[in-house]
Every structure is written in C-alpha cells, then in structure tokens.
Design goal:
Blueprint lengths: L11 E2 L7 E6 L2 E6 L12 H10 L13 E9 L9 E3 L1 H8 L6 E13 L5 E12 L5 E13 L2 E9 L1 H13 L2
Amino acid sequence: MSHGNAKPKASATSGATKPRKATTKIRGRAKEQIVVDPKYAAFTALDPFFDIVQQGLAGLVDGAHYFDTLADDAEFEFRYHFPGWPQTVRGRNALMALYAGYGNNIVLHGADELVVHRSRDPRVVIIEYEVHGKTVATGSSYDNRFISVVTIEGRKIVQWRDYMDSLAAMTVLSQEDSGT
C-alpha cells in the first residue's frame, strides 16, 4: 500500500454529491435539496456513506449513485463479527436488500476523514473514512470508522472488503435495544 498517493481529507454531508439538485430559499439563504432517484429513495439514511465513497473513487468507477458503481455479481466481505450481519454477500441486489432496513435503526447525517490509498495492484483502492449519524429509537449519536478495500474492474466495483469499529456499532445498537 502506498501512502504517498493519499488524497487530502474530504467530507460529505447527506446529499453533498448527488447529480441532480434543486435550490430553495429559506429565510433569505439558499438551501440545496436533493432530487432523489426513486429507485434509491429507500436508502437515503446512507447518503453520506454513498457520497464519501463516490468522492474516494472519483474517476475510477462509473455510476451516478453508489449502487450504480457495483458490478451485478460484486462480492462483499464484512471483516467483522456483528450479530445478524452476514460475513459475505454476493451481488448488487443482495447488498441492496441488506441495506434496505438500515434507516430503521440509524440515519447518517455526515461522513468525513476520507483518505484514499492506491495499491500496487492498479485495480485496488483502499479508502478510510468516518460516518456520523443518530439512532432512530433514542437519538443517540453514532460515529464509526471504516477501512474499505475496493477492487475495480471495467470501472465497476467487483469486490469490497470492509473493516469497521464493531464496538462502536454494537454499543450504540445495544443502547437501542435496552432503551438507554
């Protein structure tokens, strides 16, 4: 892994890099609103994650939305043990099904600390980033760090190996279960 090619840190807030935008005035200030593609409306709780990944992989993958950047048969490895979460998932549709309920528990409002590393293998990119949100049931803060090892072929993601701070996720979700 080469650290010499790391990009400067970047951040994403919900909807920061969507291709279609509308602007409205609120109390004299312009506020950007996102026009969400209906096929991805169920995933808006994850928008900051999608946006930071799109920033990290800019120029390397094709697709206006994270799901559009995935090969149909992409393989996802989740390199952490988390109750109820699979170790591997194969295919874009299977990943979409897995992520469909995310917003029932956590809604992200930001992502930042993006660092991109290029591998010796030109197909592989390593991205580090953090996500920030709130839990739905209690409003507790959720902050987590990730490292994703992404393999790209033909400008599509074909493999995604994910590492995260499992304790951060388990802590906040256990608070949800106990009502604290």
